[in-house]
Design a protein that fits this description.
Layout: H1 2-26, H2 43-48, H3 52-84, H4 88-103, H5 106-124, H6 130-155, H7 160-166, H8 171-200, H9 203-208, H10 216-224, H11 230-263
Length: 264
């Protein structure tokens, strides 16, 4: 059974990662063919950085993802602290409410936010752009931050905060010196998940972006109507490598912190 389970896991991983490996291989293809590898080249990576449309869309995506994930992390952390201090019944109700945006289809969330922005745009005379896009991303990022932080509160000794105050810490100092280090892995995980979802989002961004705030997924979608350039393969490869590096660094840091705590 152990050998069978290992074979099963290998097949699952192959199914998940073979498309990415194919994309990486064809990002080095000499021709634009997506089925025949004609030779090795770095030309598409060089041309990528000279493509104004793709680079502008990438910059827009990074700006929106960074601002939205930072804001969502702050709001989500504050919300998680408030939810943790609630009584059991209200906490359960609020948690179920925060889970709805996660389960809710993106098309529903995207259309709802678009209609909301249209309603306010007609009365406050503003246009769709970075502001509406960032607000939309914060909206669907916050529940993921809360979802990552709440388990850390359940693992933490609930009396640590009071003990720190009894030993002379102010409420603010007790939070930053005692509570925050305990929930920090959840905060970091929530930030990384928010950043990843913001980078990846298409449906909600499509309904809430303006003409001057096109994100990379929307630009790629517009290219599929003609033919996707291998420059997109090169860009996707770079993003994949960066994400892998970030995850590896995060896991190494968490493992070292766990070892240090174990030694202490």
């Amino acid at each position: 059974m152990k050998k069978l389970s290992k074979v099963y896991m290998a097949l699952v991983l192959l199914f998940l990662y073979i498309p990415i490996f194919v994309l990486i291989v064809f990002s080095f293809n000499v021709t634009k063919s997506r089925s025949v590898f004609s030779g090795f080249t770095f030309d598409w990576y060089i041309k990528l950085f000279h493509n104004g449309l793709i680079m502008k869309s990438l910059l827009n995506t990074v700006i929106v993802a960074t601002v939205a994930s930072i804001a969502a992390t702050i709001l989500g952390t504050a919300a998680a602290i408030g939810i943790n201090n609630m009584k059991k019944l209200p906490r359960t109700i609020v948690m179920q409410g925060t889970n709805i945006p996660i389960i809710n289809p993106e098309i529903v969330t995207g259309v709802s936010l678009m209609l909301l922005f249209v309603f306010f745009a007609a009365r406050m005379n503003f246009e769709f752009g970075f502001v509406t896009l960032i607000i939309a991303h914060i909206t669907f990022d916050v529940p993921y931050v809360i979802l990552n932080i709440m388990p850390k509160f359940r693992q933490m000794n609930p009396h640590l905060y009071e003990a720190a105050q009894d030993l002379g810490c102010s409420p603010v100092s007790a939070f930053f010196k005692v509570v925050l280090p305990e929930i920090l892995p959840g905060v970091i995980s929530g930030f990384l998940m928010s950043f990843t979802f913001s980078l990846d989002d298409f449906v909600i961004s499509y309904f809430t972006s303006g003409a001057t705030s096109q994100t990379l997924p929307i630009t790629i979608y517009s290219m599929t109507r003609r033919k996707v350039s291998p420059e997109i393969n090169a860009l996707s490869t770079i993003i994949f490598v960066i994400v892998v590096i970030v995850l590896v660094v995060k896991n190494v840091i968490e493992r070292r912190n766990a070892v240090k705590r174990g030694v202490k």
